[in-house]
Every structure is written in structure tokens, then in C-alpha cells.
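Tutorial handout. Part one gives the primary structure; part two gives the three-dimensional structure as C-alpha cells.
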Amino acid sequence: MTPMLLLLLACTSEITCGPGTTLKDQTCVVADSGAPDSEAETDTDTDTDTDSDTDSDTDADADGDTDADTDSDADADPGEDGWPVQVFSPFVDATAYPTPKIGDISTETGIRYYNLGFIVGDGTCNATWGTYYSVDSGPESWSGGSSYYLYDEIDRLRALGGDVAVSFGGAAGTPLAVACTDVASLKAQIRRVVDQLDLHRIDFDVEGTWLTDHVSVSRRNEAIASLQADLAGEGRSLAVWYTLPVLPSGLTADGEWLIADALDKGVGLSGVNIMTMDYGDGAAPNPTGQMGEYGIQALEALKDQLALAYREAGASKTETELWPMLGSTPMIGLNDVTTELFDLEDAQQTLDFAVTNKLGMISMWSINRDHGCPSQNWVSVDCSSNPEQSADWAYTQVWVGY
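Part two.
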């Protein structure tokens, strides 16, 4: 998923809403919420177009904002990172301008967890936010005659009971695993971010040519395993997810290699999140009305691939153990492969599957894009280009109770 590259339901009669949401006017909305209809990029360039290759109880305040205390069933049994075992956690393009005010978004929508992207090198072994902002101060924007900062927004979110994960990598810029040419320096830069934001969960988005670079992939895995061991010695845990490109048939061969190497290096892998988007016509023909189904196929294939990887690593897992380790991140609305449009029916289909199988995470690219621009027929950084979406947060309303 590429930060700033562009800066760059109809509903059926049978709709199942997620926990903590209710059906109102053929739309899943936050339960007991007076939250107004409203709307939420970047060009993800997650080109997995490989034609030639292979209970969210939310109380509304007087003006309609929702102050959610996310008491989902999953919250009763949190993971080691303190997050719900089943969670809706959208991606935020944190380097887009203006910086999304996740505190305001959370108060309005009930979202409590986010994946913030992306941390990359600045041409050297130095962690930055998309090369634009220092890790020390974080993204900054200007509004109402004064500056505001992403890190203050994170504090606001945590005061509401939420949290963030930070994602390293993405499609743009140079991954730290490439910029840092030894394990020790790479580990130090990852830890720098973890300590700066007191993170309990991180993600690594590896895609494009960087996924085929097995040297840097292996270096990253070794650094992660070493960092997790260091933190464990200090009485701290660090959940690690990978976000990877996918086809309806599952991970690419390089994605499978990454997982096998991570297990071999001793990474404590919490989950694998797949980018259920941009498949390409060869891999996903006639995608209209089928993007939800293609994403389900990819998740089922991923589950089988992970089962095999763990079995070959001598640490077999059951399906019940594997499903909570899986995440799905569709690109809402119009995809970069513009024959593909992930609509609100696809979102509902994804939710139904996740509820049935107890999927670990539903995400989306991105919260920045969950806004309506129904007459627009090109991919935008700040709206979905879905002709059926006219209101803000339409996709969020489907998933926020998960």
C-alpha cells in the first residue's frame, strides 16, 4: 500500500450486522448510536496482478458522536498484545496531508484500533514516517490556525481505551530491512519506533520487488526474532503481523517463503494479513460483484498455506488456532486495478465470513478513503469512488462492531 503516491448496498433483504451494530434503513450502524452518516489511499500499488506469474457497546452523546467502550466478546479474552482477538482495525495513511485525526474519527465512529503506515528508511538506516516525518515527533498538520500531531491523536485514542499498531514498509520508499544492511542496526531502528510509541503490536507490509528480495526478508525475520527475545527478557511482549499480497489462490511463492523463513528464524508470528485487492483480470476474472468471494477464497487458501508451514516447522496448528491468525485488508471502493470495485455488499460478505470463522482481523485500505464521491471514476486518496457510497464511514459502519 503506497502512502502519498497520489497526494498524491445496495443492500439485499437479508443482512447480517456485526456484534455491536444494528440494521437501520438497510445499513449496519453502531448500536444505540446517533452517529451521523459521514464518509472516509493512497494508490496502493499492491500489484498482485500476476497474470504472467504465477462487542462494541457504543453510547451516543448529545450531538450524535459515539463514545464507544469496545466491549466485544473478543475483548473478554484479549491477546498478549491487549488487543481483541477479533478486531476491526483499518489502515491509516498516516503520512497523508492533512494527518487523519484518529481521535475525532474514533469518537464519531466507535473505531478503537488502527494500523498506521508507513515506516521506511530515508535513504539510510534511519526510520521515518514515509521519509516525510521524523519518528521522534511524528506526522504534523495544520488546522484552525494551529498545528496538531499524530502522536497526540494516539494519546486521545488510548484515553478512549484503544490502541495502534505501526506498519513498516508498504509499496513506496525503501524498507528498513533493505536500508539497514545488518541485523543489529535494523533491530535498533525497529525498536526505536516500538519504544517511541510504546507499541505492543507491529506490522510489516512487504510487497512488490521487496518481497522477492530474500536477503532482506531473512534479515528482517532475524531482527524481529531477536527483538522479541530482548523484549521478553524485559517482561514485555511484541505481537508481530505480516501484511502480504495475495491472489484468490493464496500467497505467492515468495510470500510462502517469507512465512517459512520467519518460522525458521523463530519469529513469534501473531498473524498474517492479506491485501485482498488488485488481483488482476487473469487471476480474478469478471470481478464485478465477486470481490468479496475472491477475498474469501484467498483467506481459505491462506489458512491451508499456514497450516502447511507450521506443520513443516514441526509446530502444527488446528483450524481453530489458525483462523484468529488471519486478517483481510480489502481496498474499499475502486481498486488500482480499476476493473475491481469492492462494494458494500462485498464488505457485508467479508463480515459474515469473519464472524462465522472468528477471523483475527478485518482491516481496510484505508480509513482516509471511507468517504463518498459517487460521481468519481478514478482512484482517489481520500474517497472510495464507489458510485453507491454517498455518506462518510459507510464501510466502517459495516465492520465497526467486529
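Part three, for discussion. The CA atoms of residues 83 and 306 lie 22 Å apart. The radius of gyration is 19 Å.
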